[in-house]
Amino acid sequence: MNEQDIIKPNVETVSIENTKADDLAHVANAAEVERSLIKTLDRRLMIWAFFGYFANGMDRNNMPNAYTTGLSDDLKLVGDEYNWAITMFFIGYIVLQIPANFIITKVRPSIMLPLVVFTWGAIVCFMALVKNVQGLYGLRICLGFAEAAFYPGIVFLLGSWYTKEELGTRTAIFVAGSQISGAFSGLISGAIATGLDGTHGMRGWKWLFIIEGLIAVVIGFVGFFVLPDFPNNTRFITGSAREVAVIRLERQGRSSAVSGLNMQTFRNLFTTPFIYLFTFMFICMQMGMGFLQNFPIILKSIGYQADFANYMMVPIWIWVGIVVVAQGYLSDKFGHRAYHILAGGLYTFVWYTILVAVRGGNVPTVLLFISAYMIPPVFGISPIMMTWANEIYSCDRETRALAIAIINSLGNLAPNFINVKVWSVVDAPNYRLGKIVTMSMTAAMIVMCFGAFILQKKKIMIPKASQRVIDEEMDKKKTHITQEDEF
């Protein structure tokens, strides 16, 4: 046994272990098999992921709708209690997200992901029983625990199946599920405010939690029967389809190897600049969503009825979903993820500047509505950024999963603590501080994105697979020995 055999990491083997990564010639009707594979994934993984994130968006972001349908009055929310209720979710979300996304590399996603959807749906139903703000805080934390594995888990799973020519569009379609849920939640909230409020002695916000929670329960149950695992162990993808699934990713440098946590994993995550740049970019991007997330409260504060405020969000969220998918498609078609992030960031920056500059932030109602339809490109940055992270951290399964979880968890946590003050409900409808802070952070995101693009283009400190590092170290040793021999 030679030295390289001793230090070679123990990785998971697949059926095409000895096949060249770019060789599909031995697979009969490879093109047809690949098309069939993609259709199967789209029917099962993509449709379920879309509706799963649809339920996720409703259940995570239903606080503004609940607030306008009686929650604030019944629980006597004062000051920043409303914002803290939102923040409680993200405290739970962050605590479990990183370990949950490591666990998904070791277990079957077809069991883990549907289970978390089913669980959070049940928790949302129980939120209809809260009697005070403390109970609301507790269940919002539990909701964060339950949802922690879903978004990064699906992003990771998409990256385990789709190529770089497909991944941006699919990630965008997945994310669009959350935006479309904003429209559907607005319809539900508007209908509840006018039709169900008081039915069977329950206020509208209670019905809101029950209905939206049950939707997630049903979607979670269906997931146990349709969701795939990984290319090498999915029960309904076998034979040549399984072989093609593995090869087409490996030929793009995306490893399906499972090497376990090792020092190279931590070097990839914490001694390369990308994890820090992407995390801070994600924080800035999340802040850019503040205007639309608070738009129902803005409308109610300037005198519109609660049902009208909720109904007005329906076309806005549908438009956001369309924009997000279009951005994802364009990033696949033309490549260079950074270009599309920079374009979306610059466009958003311009509109937040307008919202800050016009009449000191007290903008006319017409401009409020125009801005609501102009800001959506900031939402499309999220799936493009996660697609980029899937590609940057393609060296092994654990590094990719943990990178996605770290970026998403910290990227979501910080904005919600910041939002407690900068988007405080007491500042409605002007929210001048929130607009100024968001404008500044959008500018910072643009700078950091450009920096990450330069590093990638110059191939500076790109994360590397463990075996590749070992091979480079062996080459250096050989070179050193050769030079000594020459003397």
TrEMBL record:
Residues 45-459 form the Major facilitator superfamily (MFS) profile domain. Pfam families: MFS_1 (PF07690). It comes from the Eukaryota. GO terms for molecular function: transmembrane transporter activity. Its main location: membrane. It is found in: Membrane. Keywords: Membrane, Transmembrane, Transmembrane helix, Transport. InterPro entries: MFS, MFS_dom, MFS_trans_sf. PROSITE patterns: MFS. One of its GO terms (cellular component) is membrane. The chain crosses the membrane at residues 82-104, 111-130, 136-159, 171-193, 205-227, 269-288, 308-326, 338-360, 366-389, 401-424, 436-455. It is a multi-pass membrane protein. This is Major facilitator superfamily (MFS) profile domain-containing protein.
